[in-house]
Amino acid sequence: MRSRPFIPILILGVMLGLGGLASPVAGQSSDTDSTWRPTATERLVRLPAGYLERAIEQDYQASGLARAIEDTGAQLRARAVGLSDLQALARTSVGAARDEVRHRALIEKRAYVDTMGRQLDLERERIETRVAVFERLLDEVERSDAPVTEQDQVLEANRAAALERFEGSRARIDMALLEGGAAERSTYATEYGKHADALRALSEAIDRHPMNAAPELDGKPLDRTAHLRQLLIAAETERALLEQRQLVVSYMARLVALDAMALADEMARREAAQTGRPEDRDLTLAVDAFVN
Amino acid sequence: MTRSVLILTAVLLATVAGPIQAASLENLERERALLISTLLDPALDAEERATRVETARRRLVDLEALTLRDPTVREDRRPIARRAFADYDLTFLGHASLERGIAPIDLWMERLGLSSARILAARVGRR
Questions:
Q1: Which of A52, B23, B34, B113 minimizes the number of CB atoms within 10 Å of its CB?
Q2: Least CB-CB distance to B85: which of A162, A172, A173?
Q3: Which phi-psi region, left, alpha or beta, contains residue A219 (left: φ > 0; alpha: ψ -120 to 50)?
Q4: Domain ranges in chain A?
């Protein structure tokens, strides 16, 4: 029973430590930079809609936050294995050794809950950064796609009228050029036309490229704005799920605290039974002398 | 290896995916200025002017067609585009003059409000 004097201290430690979980451990210090500062949205907004999400994911994967989440995940896996070993050991141990193992299991559980709290904080940071990026992108896209001012509407109308007039007079103009003896196209126009054809071919290849394919929802292609809204909804859903996970962890913390109290209570009762009050012990011993 | 490919992809996309600056309207403007300066050049005799004007006009007509079909021009919202499409006759001088069957210089002067009567009635003064 070498460890018995430490029991109340350990249990107090477990409970105090878990008490801190009520306010998530965002303030935990880390030697490494566990932040994610995404690429400027002006650059992201130029990417094809289908590639946008992958680009954000790649940017995240290269961040300190991704490394911190990966490290915390590895710690959690190691702690889960340790915890499972301790529980197996507690089932086969007896007496003081069993108490010792149960203490260690409690401490290990507390550390697991602590680490899980840290993991969820980092996850929250990741999700909130994603939401902020999508919101900024959406603002940017809506601003650039907006069908704009009265001046722009006038420009569109003038442009449409110019094209209509050009198409309507093409035959007449070709005939006028032929009559004027200028059937040959200028060198400049021939070269320009070649480049325009090359640009058109390349532009069509870009449009057909699978990496440039528009994302789909229920088999229907989504435009950039709708796609960003979908991504935003997905990130918000992830945030709601994270809140549920935080609730699970807070329940785990409460259960560890109750286990610690139960263990303290059990050990105190056992100790009281073994020692007892001297007058009670003496009276019981004397009964035998009277009976026999 | 994968990481460097991803970085390269991101860099290329960020570089290449930038908007293409439409330059067709500026080219058209230069070509039109060349035609007008040829038409107004007092150093040229009638025959040489006619030859040069014919070449410049043909080039202008081709360039106008290319400009009108250019997708970057269709998305151009700069002031130069607003100004250009606000006056078809002046901007697409080659097409407009052929369409109306008049000389480019006549159409140009008409659009600028320069008639013989107005020029003769003009006086030198301070604004």
A1: B113
A2: A162
A3: left
A4: 4-147+225-291
For chain B, give the longest Cα–Cα distance: 78
| CA–CA dist B96, B67 (Å, integer) | 14
Inter-helix orientation angle B104-111/B93-100, to 10°: 110
Instruction: Assess contact for B67 and B28: CB atoms under 8 A.
Output: yes
Interface list for A 34-53 with B (CB within 8 A): 39, 43, 46-48, 51
The C-alpha of B91 sits at a distance from chain A's nearest C-alpha, in angstroms, of 10
pLDDT digits (tens, 9 = 90+) for B14-59: 444 444 444 588 989 999 999 999 998 989 898 999 888 888 888 8
Residue B45 lies in a domain: yes
Give the position of tokens 């010792």. Answer: A100
> Count of domains in chain B?
1
- Structural domain span for residue B38: 21-121
Mean pLDDT by 10 residues, chain A (292 residues): 49 52 40 76 72 85 94 93 88 85 91 94 94 88 74 90 92 81 64 76 81 67 80 90 91 92 89 70 68 68
Is B74 within the bounds of a domain?
yes
The rounded distance, in Å, linking the Cα atoms of A121 and A24 is 7
This model of the complex carries an ipTM of 0.77
Mutation test of the interface with chain B: which of A41, A43, A197, A209, choosing the one with the most B Cβ atoms within 10 A? Answer: A43
Which among A62, A173, A196 has CB closest to B95?
Answer: A173
For residues A138 and A134, give the distance between their C-alpha atoms in angstroms, rounded to a whole number.
Answer: 6
Question: Measured between alpha carbons, how far is A118 from A148 in angstroms, rounded to an integer?
Answer: 46
The answer to the question of residue B40 being in a domain is yes
Map residue A142 onto helix, strand or coil: helix
Contact A148, A154 (CB under 8 A): no
Dist CA B70 CA B24 (whole Å): 8
Residue type at B32 in one-letter notation = R
Provide CB contacts within 8 A for B22, sequence distance 6+: B70, B72, B73, B75, B76, B78, B81
